[in-house]
Amino acid sequence: MQNTHSRWIKVFITVILVCSGCATIANLDLNKLYGEKNPVNRAPASVAQASLESPATAFYQTKVAPVIEGRCVVCHACYDAPCQLKMSSPEGIERGANKEIVYHGSRILAATPNRLFLDALDSPDWRERGFYPVLNEREQTPSANTQASVLAKMLMLKQQHPLPDDKLLDERFDVSIDRSQQCPTIAEFDGYAKSQAFGGMPYALPELTGEEHNILMSWIDSGAYLPARAPLSEAQESAVNSLEDFLNADNLKVQLSARYIYEHLFSSHLYFSEITAPDAQPQFFNLVRSRTPSGQAIDVIPSRRPFDEPGVKRVYYRLQPVMSTIVNKTHQPYAIHKALTDKWQKWFVDADYTVTELPSYKPKVAANPLTAFTQLPENARYRFMLERAQNTIMGYIKGPVCRGQVALNVINDRFWVYFVKPEVADSPKIHAFYESQKDNLRLPAEHESTAFAVTWLEYASRQGDYMRARHDFMATALEDGQHFTENDIWDGDGENDNATLTVFRHFDNATVVKGLIGKPPKTAWVIDYALLERIHYLLVAGFDVYGNYGHQLMTRLYMDFLRMEGESNFLAFLPPETRHQELASWYQKAGPELTEFVEGKINPFDQPSGMQFKTQHHKKELYDIFAEHVKGVQPSRYRLQDSELGRNSKALLGQLANIKGQSASILPELSMIMVEPTDSDKPEIFTLVRNSAHFNVNSLFSEDVNRDHANDNVTLVHGLLGSYPDVFWRVKEADIAKLVAKAQQIENEQDYEAFLDLFAVRRTTKDFWEFSDKLYQTFMEHNPIEGGLLDYNRLENR
Fold it and tell me: What InterPro entries does UniProt report for this protein, alphabetically (predicted)?
């Protein structure tokens, strides 16, 4: 056995040496033909020919960019871009690719962040960080530009080996989300092409048309010039200066408030709604920390987290234009206008309070907003987050991560969210209570990016202490023990449609939308100030996608507490007996430790409800009572009845929402449906969301064991919901009855495949890209601000 083992080691080492030798020889050949690679070789040519008025710029903007965005960015964006090749900006293309995997949940030590526009700013710096070019960085000649470019080679390989003319892709194609990544350099490309003949780009999708291919090859052949950026308009400059002036005032009140605002908006895309043309995509901005004040070039402080020590005496908050194509999976639009900034002035500046000193950036202070911002009124903080509650919650979906099953299997597949009204937080008693609980409300981010998960027990104990203290406080300190009623639920002040949210989980990604979407769900949350704040600092401000296993595991485990806290707040509105029954149904098959923790350590669960019920169906009645309370601020988006299809067509489509059980289980997470109307050439888009049922969502691993397939169901909405389609359906309005009938007959995989044969636009469909363009155009026509390119990495092969 030992000899066999040694022999295999020798074989492995030999293979590595042979491969390395091949790459070395290839490099020598390339050096001989086209000179040695150096990123500065591209710079002089790009500067000379990529001015705003040059033909090269016009060609790129009108011809090249649309192809890159519509055919490349749909797979190459965010941290989960294959080989870290982000093609959503010229800077990302120049940066190139990297073999290191960002989503690596078992690493012992935190990885080095490689964030575009933050951690390095030019090609030489990226080369030092292990990124290799996909464009030619040798002699700038037409021959070298194509033969020494990975991008060109990938495009040519696809033309040489297009998709086979088959319905489904065979074993030569791996479209799983965790597929191994090859990431060949130009020196390794010949070996890649031999072993992965069908690995050209776009991978596992139809090849580009001849015209599209020629556009990209002509661009690469002539040097792949990437143009300079157009300057901001006068109106945009003025709006930027005004907001920066507000955020960078010298008094301590504003400095503390600006820090709070930044730490909550750093992942958002800010835009000025008052200077944005109707039906146009605005110029978006990132709020960043800079070493330099307004009027000077932005010098970004590239910390891992927004509350990390900045290393300078004074931080300046600046607006940096978003320089990448907008992709839906990371897009959090946030409108800035006078009515909003007037509220900021009222909450943070004009309010009667005093700031004596700015808080420390030490982790145990900065990672806990209840400690760092104790001088800011709770009402101001809570009002700020509630004003755009969807954005606050959306941060943990679209902020620091692009995917992560382990991060999201802590929530149910669909649930509703309500909020405690902000007047409750506007009390000296509340302030004193939170002050007393700062130690119990500490968060895992205080251990930074390299942590040991065993400290979870410490946080569990503190969470239990906090929940018991909160229960005692609510029972004795507020309104002489009066318990909450529907009047303590925020109604959006009668005008804000952020008052209620629906959260959809799609296995390893999720969506947050305003309003109560779909049928009444199994679970719901009621969120108060402290819970909303901790969700943000756990999953957005305090989460490091480059962190080690312990950091990510502790984050996931701690989120269990926060989910249970939100659920408990909702259950507290029910009578005690019903409360226990509901809790048992939400945590079926849970271990005794969890049951004891939920019902004993964190929830006495014996307090009376402040509600008055008239029926025995308490949860349903509670949903109805809450619905009546917030009905004035329910948005109309996603309603089936708002479709312009005929009444009969809408009624037929509505029947899809009745699919449940095993039939629903067969469907993927997100099915996006294009209906081609009989009397119009403008398609209508619908989304069918599968909601996977679970006996409980407390298990970290082996999620399948907790799946309750018999209670799976679906939600149908008008419009596009989600960023990661699993399948596309296409149907003429006249054929809706047939589609619905076939969908209702799905009982197994064979039935589903037969259904797809009739209605699917598969990866292999010849007009896939034409359909994709039409879908995106329709999406953006209806959602010019919220819309963005979808991600095709999860398209199934079924």
Answer: Fatty_acid_cis-trans_isomerase
